[in-house]
Amino acid sequence: MVYVDYWSSKARCTMKRKWISSLLVGIIFLGSVVGPVAAALCPGDFLPWMSAATAEPETGLSTGRDHVVRNGDTLWALSREYHVDLDALLLMNNLDENDLLTVGRTLKIPISTCTVKKGDTLSSLASRYQVSVEALAMANQGKDPYQLEVGDVLIIPGFEADSIAASSTPSRGYSIDLAAFGWPVSGAVTSAYGWRKSGFHHGVDIAQETGAPIKAAADGIVIFSGAKPIYGKTVIISHNDGRETLYAHAQSILVHKNQRVRKGQIIALVGTTGRTTGPHVHFEVKLNGKTVNPLSQLR
User: Facing residues of 140 across strands?
Assistant: First the structure.
């Protein structure tokens, strides 16, 4: 019996050591799997697991982008489409604002882009490149910030003309004088331009009392006067520089289609028609059929 117990005890000790060794291996393996996953689940705080805290991450930025000129493109329109400084666009391509663009010509757009990787969110990318979430969403209107996909290429706003001027010397001087729009009403902006959880907001909402006058932002011709789904009673004006302005949710409209109006002329009265939660003006600005941030056009 003593002989049997001795070998049984030795076998149990051997099995216990093997079990402890297996447990340690399992813990190490689990840590190697859970560590990166946990890091990826913390947007904006990702640091490769077991890497040095002082390691410098690669920016992942690509600078410059080619654009093939399309029919109807203008330098001003391209600067708004890509949310870049017009001066920077002119400098990079050695142009002035009076140059005509030929269809098929390739221009260099002074923007920085990044490619979305697994675990990236709009918040983490904004933090990484030190821009606001709103600015990042505005520069990428075609992307839903709540559904970024791996491989998406996003524009990183904030590319300054100074960085180009340091390495580019235009052969000609130029001056730029773009007309600004007047405010359609005076009031607080209660909803900004850009992405929100319900979708992309293509204008700004300016609060004002019911019946307050709505004024034309600039000279132009009324191309729409009537009711639209969601927008309610709406006026759309086409301006001489190719831009369009839209004024929605009016209580009543005071102009008609094809009527020429002057900047500051009263065209409607503030109301709550369409889908609204209170009296305000929904104001949009379009350039070549694409909305731009109205606040960048107002003075």
Answer: none
pLDDT in tens, 256-288: 999 999 999 999 999 999 999 899 999 999 988
| Tokens found for residue 169 | 């010397």
Give the Cα separation of 212 and 280 in Å (integer). Answer: 9
Q: Which two tokens stand for residue 297?
A: 């056009």
**Secondary structure (3-state) at 53:** coil
From 142, 143, 145, 123, select the one nearest 132 (Cα to Cα).
123
Fold: same for 61-165 and 189-296: no
Is the pLDDT at 141 greater than 80, yes or no? Answer: no
Identify the three-state secondary structure at position 10: helix
Instruction: Name the DSSP letter for residue 65.
Output: E
Rounded CA-CA distance 281/214 in Å is 8
Domain boundaries, the chain: 1-42, 61-165, 189-296
The residue count for the chain = 299
Residue 14 structure tokens: 């051997």
CATH number for the domain formed by residue range(s) 189-296: 2.70.70.10
Statement: the pTM of the whole predicted model exceeds 0.70: no
**Which residues make Cβ contacts (< 8 Å) with residue 254, sequence separation at least 6?**
266, 267, 268, 269
Q: What are phi and psi of 68, to 5 degrees?
A: -90, 120
Cβ–Cβ under 8 Å, residues 285 and 243: yes
Nearest to 250 by CA among 202, 294, 213: 213
CB neighbours (10 Å) of residue 123?
Answer: 13
Contact of 116 with 158, CB cutoff 8 Å: no
Assign domain 61-165 to its CATH architecture: Roll (3.10)
Contacts 24+ apart (CB under 8 A), 140-148: 141/200, 141/290, 141/291, 144/195, 145/195, 146/122, 146/195, 146/197, 148/116, 148/120, 148/121, 148/122
Q: Is the dihedral of CA 142, 147, 153, 155 positive or negative?
A: positive
